[in-house]
Amino acid sequence: MLKFRSKTYIIVEKDLKLICLNLILSKNLTYYKLYEKNEKIYFEISLFKKKRFTEIFDNANIKYEIKETEGLLNLIKTFRLRVGVLIGVIFLIFTLYLSSNVVWKINISGNNQLNDEKIIEILENCGFYVGKFIPNIKYDELHNNVLLANNDISWISVNISGNVANVEIKETLKEDINDKNTYCNIVSRYDGYISSINVINGERVVSSGEVVKKGDLLISGIVDSKAEGLRYLHAEGEIKAYVNKEILIKIPHKTEIKAYTGKVVKEKSLKLFSKYIKFSLKSNKYDEFYDKINKIESINIFGIDNLPIMLETTKLYQYQYQEINRSKQEIIDLAFKELNYEMNEALKDAELISKSIKSYYDGESYYIECDLYCLEDIAEEVEIFIDK
Fold first, then answer.
1. Which pLDDT belongs to residue 196?
2. What is the 3-state secondary structure (H, E, C) of 57-71?
3. How many of the other CB atoms lie within 10 Å of CB of 80?
4. What pTM was computed for the model?
5. Segment holding 254, helix H or strand E
């Protein structure tokens, strides 16, 4: 959290403590406090007295360091030349301090699958956001719009406490694949040679020993009987089949890696409600080869928490793509590492019967071709849609 008052420290070596104290007293200067850490003395001083302190220390040839913590006053001092921006910020802060009819903060609870950012985005699209005028909120309409906007939310409640909106949601439970109210067929997930069939529900349309293609119907969820006529079911069953799976891997000598140049661009901005005030005098247009890291801190003014004022610090780390040429042993090791991963994925739900591996090198890349022969349940449920 960014405090209203920043902290400024002058740091000197421990053995200079008495000399510095005498010098400060002789010049009628004051400091907040001092403490010792790691064989050094820290004088906490006013930000506005920093210049005077550094002048007398320089004149006395005393070596020192300056350390400043982030604070609103420090931020104002840093950007003091942008008078228009500061006037606007001060006016908005004053307005916020007096205001009691707008949403300053949104708290989310009850979500497991959807993150807070996604829910806040949904709320914004439905007209509810930080800065919303509370008397204008139509709760029933807002609730209905949110439910219509996202099928993953089954229930929502928005309650205002002071300037904080507490949003509680319940997420939609994923439909159980064994729900008997859902009609479906069983089709083949892969090409294969059927080994065994175990029908739990529905009508079998293939037999053991048959060769099937991907997508072929195996168990029908539509049953036609003389006694009951046409019936729709949730087909269920296990169809074991022998299937072939191919894995192809290519690892070249030459590749590109991301290499950081050491250049870092730093920007600061204030976020007031959903609006941003940029403090940087530089252009926001940078080339695409930057990794961005954002740090957001809430601002505490006069002891007031939950203000809709945030300080956002953005650091852009420049990088460039550098081509490297890996050795033959390196690409061989990488190829077999990739093969191991792909095989584990392919055999996750299957029983390996046999495998064959062929590898070769053409001077530029290393190749692996792997054929897996395995036994696996190829049953896949496909819902039947009925026009009523």
1. 95
2. HHHCCCCCEEEECCE
3. 9
4. 0.52
5. strand 254-272
- Sheet strands (E) in 110-183: 153-161, 164-171
- What phi and psi values does residue 291 have, to the nearest 5 degrees? -95, 130
The pLDDT tens digits for 279-332 are: 665 545 556 788 888 877 766 655 555 566 777 788 888 899 999 999 999 999
Q: Kindly state the tokens that stand for 261.
A: 């140049």
* Short-list 36, 34, 27, CA closest to 7: 34
At 359 the three-state DSSP class reads strand
Strand partners, 239: 197
Secondary structure (DSSP) of 274-322:
TEEEE---S-S---S-EEEEEEEEEEEBTTB-S-SEEEEEEEEEEEEEE
Q: What whole-number distance in Å separates Cα of residue 383 and Cα of residue 235?
A: 9
CB-CB contact of 204 with 253 (8 Å): no
CA dist 331 and 337 (Å) reads 10
Axis-axis angle for helices 116-125, 139-149 (nearest 10): 120
Taking the C-alpha atoms of residue 308 and residue 274, their distance in angstroms, rounded to an integer, is 9
Nearest to 380 by CA among 242, 241, 236, 174: 236
CA angle 193, 217, 232 (to 5 degrees): 145
CB 309 within 8 A of CB 327: no
Rounded-to-integer distance, Cα 364 and Cα 62, Å: 63
- The tokens for 28 are 């009628």
Alpha carbon distance, N-terminus to C-terminus of the chain: 58
For residues 3 and 305, give the distance between their C-alpha atoms in angstroms, rounded to a whole number: 10
Nearest to 158 by CA among 148, 145, 149: 145
Q: How far apart are CA 260 and CA 134, in angstroms?
A: 47
Long-range contacts made by residues 261-264, C-beta under 8 angstroms, separation at least 24?
261/318, 261/319, 261/320, 262/318, 263/317, 263/318, 264/315, 264/316, 264/317, 264/318
Q: Which of 37-46, 130-139, 172-181, 257-266 has the least mean pLDDT?
A: 172-181
Angle at 226 between CA 220 and CA 227, to 5 degrees: 105
